[in-house]
């Protein structure tokens, strides 16, 4: 609640009306009394100011953006702390950021309703983002949360990157993307390394920018799911689709550029924002990117480039307001610095539609007092408690909620006035067109230009021709290049001028598809996606077969019959093989250790190797395996036991054997023999009396065993002769 005297921060910033609030901060219209300019003041919510983690993030945003001075990045002018008393009467510091006051709409507003931007505008917006990122990356900063809601378009077409609330210095990339074990960022635009909680670098921002470009071209993000976890899993594990799979007018060059930006391995992506932007410029300079067949917001009908997109978003908001929807809800007047995924807008319920399919720009924003004053010609309407601000919106990192319904009335009045003026101008133009002759002069025929219809759907072509007074005549023919049901060409051709009164008929040739079809590659696609891909190609799935493929997860396609790349007739029956998540483990016993390891690695199985000393098999031979041959789950650990030459031996017991038998037994055991002799009254001559070491003891191979062999009893001494 504001007092009569405006609050003054740092002795120079007057705090005006509350424009909006979000999960972390409140944003006010402000006025810099020293420099005499309007500013946006973001103040950390008082209830969060006691939490060091929120203070740290808030200060990090200020520090991150304050050092960046680039036209594509929302500027931070100043930071400071306001000291207030809390409910306990204690004085606490509440940080604030003074930011550039910006007018415009976010890219999320442009994409509302899953409508793709025209290709030229999509590329121009992406290049604007890359220009800002290139500057930030050279300044040693990674944004980490590039998404449509964090990119703003001004009415002049300028692109501005905002919300450095979770940015990190490149010097700190040793820190992972987790905070208390939670991944930071927005699920639909996370790079694989962010989703895994690994270190990030500038190439992580380029992946997110690739996701942004994909959505601009198609009206949907590359990956969608029922939860953040499922979306993050797809970023890590699944190959990104081509934009042309969802928007047929996207040329192969842009497919390739998006594909490179969305590589799982960051080393395979663009190495810099400049390289990314250069490829986009090359694709556009070559004239390979056609305009879209429809006229969505931002198309040529609204004016070229990002400025056309921004203006179109404003007109769309006006139409919504006339239908009973506030201009703020439709046009989405946004403030710089949107919230990250997972932050709940203040005042919103916990329920609602799935926020991950696709992101609808979770940021609801209070329109500034005169945001439409500049876009649609409405009155400026300064906010109370501050000097008259310029039109625009305010920087914040969180979702905004409408604070003053009186502004909606001003917006609607401005929209209605602009619409009325536009209608009057149209009537005058038409009157002048049809009444330009004088007296009895014969008026010149009114010629119209046959529009470019190649690639658009039949119904769209019909609507466009009728709208300019021409009569479509449809004919069908086969085409290998144009999808069935879309226009191949027209007669008269596009660009030719005709008289709708004397020659109104235009023959429109509609594709029936190719007379030959190349079987598409579906390996790795989810079952339903593979079915859709094959059916869209004009093929019929006859049966499903189970396949044991070590590289493809369960319930995903492994191959087709006919195989991918083969040319077949339309409506050919195809067998689709689906992985069951198992592999066939073969017999490994009696093979070598090297062969067994190669087989297990090729099957994606884990090897557990154990050595077994034995004389029953040659060293290096597999003697046991567990599990036994048969089907096993992917990733199963397989234990193999490999024969190893023994290093010790048990000494044979040779006592009582003949000398020859003892020497043979000991030699066969790998032992050396040393023979000594002595007489014995009990052991016959030639047999072993004793041995050392004794029999049954384990000794190293090559040990010498001494055996004592009997020479028999001593001879009886001859008595001396009698004297």
Task: Explain what the structure shows.
- The chain is α+β, with helices and mostly antiparallel strands.
- It has 5 domains: 7-344 and 360-376, Transferase(Phosphotransferase), domain 1, CATH 1.10.510; 449-511, Trypsin Inhibitor V, Chain A; 517-580, Trypsin Inhibitor V, Chain A; 583-644, 2-Layer Sandwich (Trypsin Inhibitor V, Chain A); 648-710, Trypsin Inhibitor V, Chain A (2-Layer Sandwich).
- Helix content is 26%, strand content 23%.
- The strands form 12 sheets. A 6-stranded antiparallel β-sheet has the order 1-2-3-4-6-5, with helices on one face. Strands 7-9-10 form a 3-stranded antiparallel β-sheet. It has a 3-stranded mixed β-sheet with strand order 15-18-16, with helices on one face.
- The N and C termini lie far apart (151 Å).
- The relative contact order is 0.08.
- Mean pLDDT is 76; it is low at 169-184, 288-304, 311-406 and 436-444.
E-strand count: 33
Counted by DSSP, the helix tally is 16
Number of domains: 5
User: Level of helix content?
Assistant: 25-40%
**N-to-C terminal Cα separation, in Å?**
151 Å
Mean pLDDT: 76
Shape: elongated
CATH superfamily of the largest domain: Transferase(Phosphotransferase) domain 1
In what range is the share of β-strand residues? 15-25%
Specify the CATH class of the largest domain: Mainly Alpha
The side-by-side strand order for the widest beta sheet comes to: 1-2-3-4-6-5
Brief write-up:
The protein has 723 residues and is α+β, with helices and mostly antiparallel strands. Helix content is 26%, strand content 23%. The chain has 16 helices and 33 strands.
